Amino acid sequence: MLHANKLVACRCKGNLWFSGVVIYTFFFDCIADTGNYLHVHPFFLHSNATSHKWVFGAIAELIDNAVDEIQNGATFVFVDKILNPKDGSPALLIRDDGGGMDPEAMRQCMSFGFSNKSKIAIGQYGNGFKTGSMRLGADVIVFSRHQNNMKLTQSIGLLSYTYLMQTQQDRVVVPMVNYKFDTSTGYLERLNDGEHFRSNLSILLHWSPYLSEEELLKLFDDIGNHGTKIIIFNLWFNDDGNLELDFNSDPEDIHIVGDIKKIDTHSASKIVNEGHIANRFHYSLHAYLSILYLRIPESFRMILRGQVVKLHNIADDLKYTEFVLYRPQCGSSKEGVSVTTIGFVKEAPKGNIHGFNVYHKNRLILPFWKVVNYTNTRGRGVVGILQADYLEPTHNKQDFERTSLFQKLELRLKQMTWEYWDYHCHLIGYCKRSTGDPGAPLNKRKTHGSIDLHKMKRQAMQENVTVAGCDQNVLTTASPTDQTVDQRIINLMEVQKKLLKECLKYEKAEEELNLKVTQLRRKTQEAKHEYDTLMAEVKSLGLYLWEENGSVAVPLVF
User: Which of 46, 204, 426, 460 could form a disulfide with 475 if both were Cys (CB 3.0 to 4.6 A apart)?
Assistant: First the structure.
């Protein structure tokens, strides 16, 4: 039964706080003397996490947070299985070397509705950590170290569904302990040490996998001067009583138990279908991560169980490739421009592979989205890739909101699939469709006699065109209407591709140099921090340093 009382809301620093009560199988409690303060019942943690029907979608949320840290100097995200030291059960570890979180940022991370990320970041709603971690397991402990203005802090927080339910809490309680590094003494000090700190530490030690404060602090050893480590334990089981995540089938991968799809077809197609990434990403985290992003800086690595995951560009798997411009419109206004890379998979005509990989802000939202149901092979083997930043992803980043723009894109991709098939099916052994057929192409595309590369580059930059699968903001187009293709156009396109690769090489070089500058600045700050620490130790020990002044050694007194 749903119950809803009168809802009162106010804005506070860009976040929405509720002072009323709303009950949708979970409870938002209010205490009068706390003012505008949100209390969430523990049931909400579970209800909130069920927005992720697919377990890899939950892992992707946590990977997104690490990728967003590239702007703060992150160079890797590390995903692996570890063992819970208390009971030996498997746990999931995710670690990055980003900027980390200070105590306030940690509080916001463990709370609901906070997000201070930029508009270019993948995450926007401040809910991904909670939904992702709680979808994977009942409990998560977070370790984060942050350095700012020569001040180093480290924080530990526990979000535990087990603790909340077994102690019958009526609201979500997140115990946290914080520390700071004292440069004058060279030691780590507790922040706000007192009864509140000791109470939180007691809860952490009782309900986390670690038995002492020393064990907790030991977990920071591999974080370095900044970064975050997430450990999700008490992982969920499936309906068959097995762990959802399979760590044993492949020591270099993580699988979803029982989700390997067997294709019921003749042997040749079966081998193609089962081995293609369009099937493997459903159960292999390595395969999914390889297509999760269109591009990432070369200096950043995704490391899964000790193996670097290399990006897999679907466009490289296509043959007879074309690039099709699409300008979506909503009413009288244009909502952006995208270019779809489309072609046959290299295995065609073998295999029943079809669909479009649709990205948003570099992040995969819809993998191999099937927009047509082919009954007579029309559309079979046609695969495309595009970036649609004008659409709005759902909060779990596994679909788009069903807006008119989305519906128009779906219709256009369906038309695009049929058009491409009708013009190119003879290249893979099928009879070319007659233009008089009822299902003939809806819009014949014109063949361009010549291509002005400078004009196209300029136009693409002005219109902010995104060519998915080509790794740059440029527009390319090729559309032969007859079996006899103008060789001059093909030659120009080859020249164009070479020039675009050169442009991309320079753009990547610039990006890497900027990243190196950022890293060097950070290292300079760290070196200065270490120097100040050593000088403070020297002062505290009453030592002297000697400086050569000509032939005389002069003591430097502190």
Answer: 460
